[in-house]
Write a structure and sequence with these properties.
- By secondary structure, the protein is mainly β.
- It is 0% helix and 50% strand.
- It has strands at 3-6, 9-12, 17-23, 29-35, 42-47, 53-55, 63-68, 73-78, 87-94, 107-108, 112-117.
- The strands form two sheets. Strands 2, 4, 5, 6, 9, 10 and 11 form a seven-stranded mixed beta sheet that branches. It has a four-stranded antiparallel beta sheet with strand order 1-3-8-7, with no helix packed on it.
- Strand 4 (29-35) and strand 5 (42-47) form a beta hairpin.
- The chain is globular and about 40 Å long.
- It starts with a strand and ends with a strand.
């Protein structure tokens, strides 16, 4: 499975960014992870092939994960961004089932940087 992220950038606090991930397949669990400098990588959101979503508590109400299976593309819409959202964001995939198990994701994109200034 090949994954290519795009859409990162710099924004002021309160702003919005949209990330995309082009995948070579559609029938996998998909997720977004992030890693801030000096911190461990953490799961942010997951979505099943059928579109069932989960979100990390700290991004609920601000981030939306979605996918377009016809286009083999995963999205992350990020609103009301905070400086603590600054990180490298990674798209990831795994074979179904158990899409919510972050530790089992085994395909990764190269990452895209998101920087939120105060």
């Amino acid at each position: 499975v090949q994954l290519v992220e795009s859409g990162g950038g710099s924004v002021q606090a309160g702003g919005s960014l949209s990330l995309s991930c082009a995948a070579s397949t559609y029938d996998y669990c998909m997720a977004w992870f992030r890693q801030a400098p000096g911190k461990d990588r953490e799961g942010v959101a997951t979505i099943t092939v059928a579109g069932i979503r989960t979100l990390k508590d700290s991004v609920k109400g601000r981030f939306t994960i979605s996918r377009d299976n016809d286009k083999n593309t995963l999205y992350l819409q990020m609103n009301s961004l905070k400086p603590e959202d600054t990180a490298m964001y990674y798209c990831a995939a795994k074979a179904s089932p158990a899409c919510t198990l972050y530790a089992t994701y085994n395909y990764w994109g190269q990452g895209t940087q998101v920087t939120v200034s105060s």
